[in-house]
Sequence to fold (543 residues):
Amino acid sequence: MKKQNFIRKVFLSMILPIILIFNAGLYAAENPAAPKPDYDVIVIGAGMGGLSAAAHLAVKGQKVLVLEKHFVVGGSTSKFTRGEFVFDVALHEMAGGGPGKMDRGLYQLLKATGVDKKVELYEVPHFYRSVFPGVDITLPPNWPGFKSELKKKWPEESEGIEKFHVLCADLFKDLMELRDLFRKGSVSGAFTQILVPFSQPTFFKWKDRTVKDLMDHCFKNEDLKAVVSQLWVFYGASVDRESALIFMAATESYLSDGAWHIKGTSQALANGYADRIRELGGTVKTGSLVTKILMENGRATGVRTADGKTYTARYIVANTDPYQLADKLVGRENLPAKYLAKIDAMKPANSLFGVYIGLNIDLKALGYNDTEIFYNTYRESMKNYEAMMKGDFDKGAVAITIYSNLGDPVYAPKGKSVVKLDAYSDISVWPKDRAEYNKLKAQKVDELIALAARVIPELKDPKNIIVKEGYTPRTIEHFTMNKGGVVYGFDLTPDQWEKVPNTTPVPNVFIASNWTQAWHGVGSCQINGWRAARLILDREGIE
Fold:
């Protein structure tokens, strides 16, 4: 018995500390745990990047909250009404495919979220009409028609026209093969990059070259070069500065996948996203300006809105520019100097100036069948670009979009027309003083209309114009909060084509906007949203 008691005491003396330690762990585990976040993901901003990110997260079962400062969703992908006229804020035409086309790019993402069932896409009847001294040509939105029209006018350039098609198709193929590179870890990603010169040779050859380099490589005739490169007006830089990559990829997408618009204006696309997010259990709140991302121990814990409300989440997606993220939302004190130096050193692209016009005449009945017309004072894009950036809008280029020619009756009553004029601009041109600003804007609105009237003379007669409303970089800055009213993100030059990644130095904060690596435009912003969502889903182990 004594021996048994001794053994028991020895056993207890050995095991008791272990039990106490173990119990201490149990008791610690029973302490109140950190409260469960309100949401899996909070998305700041309901532009295309934010809505796309939220939809791709919600369809995979994530609980999402979208907070938008404006009273409608969509950002620049929205509409407004003036009397009997409806105006698309920004969308001209959208690449990326649609029903009956190749299942790749943007339309593939719409189908993945179910948003394709919420919207009706239709192909635009014309690609674009290019007008400059000595040349006036309209091109169809498909490769056979595009090449045929060019060869009719410049038959001696047939070989170069075919070469251009092959290069654009090969570049797009290379990009599709690299589309998941952003998901790879540092080791596998580095290995893929080592193989790029051999696996994606077209991408490797053209990643550091300009649109001008591309035109000189394919063509000899300067007029042909100007016509084919005309879409420089969509991408934010003149051809001698603009990255060949975005130009080649967009051209291939437009001409193989089609140029598209949305029935009921681009607002229908934004509304379709919001409806789908709500169907999937997500929440979309308008009139909710996020003023701060809440930080704790180097990670985001949630957000605070202008009305003082706080919402918590495990991840944050910011549909903003990196400057807002650094200066207002996260705070520069929470970001490494290297990251701040990078974004501060990068050059933002330009902004826009334009005019929304409602006409009491039917332009189509008068013989204007085009939907997108580019009028250029000069053949050389740099001359047009420099004039616009100085504010000399009567000496630059203008994009003329006749929305009432798209075939959707939503824009204007029968017998009337809706036209939008767009030109590049810089915010420094526009005074901050309200009286000076209004005076200059009125003057420049008339200048831009006069330039467009060189193609559509009916615009010269004030009696034809019912609605005339201008916008400037300051308008864009007010509504989007993008620094300087920039609409294209960072300047898409060869040294900046990578822009910034969707990740940030804050491990659970991501960016989904036109400042990130899938470039800019209505379609590309949706791809940027998918990329941000995909990175979060990868971390959650959700395919």
